[in-house]
Amino acid sequence: MRRMTLPHSRSLALLLLVASVSQSGCDPAQVGAIARSDIPMEVPAAVGSQSPNLAVGPDGTLVLSWIEPEASGHALRYSILEDANWSEPGSVARGDNWFVNWADFPSVVPVSDSLWAAHWLVRQPAGGYAYDVVLSISPDGGMTWEDAVKPHDDGTPTEHGFVSLFRYDSGLGLVWLDGRNMARQSPPGGPLSGMTLRSATYSEELQIANEKTVDELVCDCCQTDVALTARGAIAVYRDRTVNETRDIYAAQFANGAWHPGYPVAADGWKIGGCPVNGPAVDADGDEVAVAWFTAADDEPKVRLARSADSGDTFSAPVDVTDSDIFGRAGVAMLGDGDVAVSWLCKENRNRARVCLRRVSANGNAGPVQMLSGDEDVPPLSLPQLARVGSALVAAWTVRGHNGSQIRSSRLAIDSLP
Is pTM beyond 0.85 here? Predict the structure, then answer.
């Protein structure tokens, strides 16, 4: 049965976001008292850079990508982790008509040893939140890039974004939020149309196939994420129901098709606008971990749920933190049954810190680690977390006198209590 929804409202979403994060309460000294054990790594990004993204390839290659200003437009750049340092940056594309937004941002993903993929967002003539996803592939590990294509051909002046790329066979798969149904006029008293989650697959030559709807109604502007399990891809996203319950869902991709989405946990968070706070997922064989933010019952939390069967079932969630938080969760499996979860701690209404803690297989959480020092981290930003071998790597955006800047650090897993 199709679910009904209320009209999309970005302004309401942001108002509710501010309201939800201002109600949490715990002693922030718990964060500030923890000494930093991570090692900062200089990022070769220009002043004005923002929106970092971390992606790990099947061979362990870690790629950091970001947006930075260039002439009258923006450029998508990337760097590879080499011997615990970031390499000289490479460039994918630039444009004067990109949609640049803290919540919805590009990525560069090493799909295989040689095949890389990238996406970015381009404004439509209608302006506002009407923009398109474009994709490009590199057959030589990021050295050269093919002409860009769009994964959608609906032509509606609506939002298309919040993309997650993943490996599919020898090619590429992706999921994205698609607003094409929001351009329809609903009959009086009939069901209203809302945001959908869609997917497509591509060959190595960027030939599209299997463009399908994964979920007919989802939250308007929460990030998506995808991980590869022993049995295929699993996508996580924030769902939306007729009564405005917006809990975290998962959908599995097997034998070329998506199975219907299902709740990771029944938080029961009812909110009349998008909280702009999506989930994160990581996988290691059949083991899957999902972290997310919720403010159900006016109690802001970052939560963690696990699966031992590639996402068929999930354990009861544990609360990673309910201290002063903005959310923006990240997650990385540590290979020993433990999981690292990151999030934005709330220093004050306008300033955040990047925090992290280790959660054991039995749900016990270690002390909170603070990665961002005294830097000015904006609450409207999304830190990144990834595991590479025996280390965790984090990246985030800070504000400075001359503009924003990407920061990054490396943390040995053995040093994480």
Answer: yes
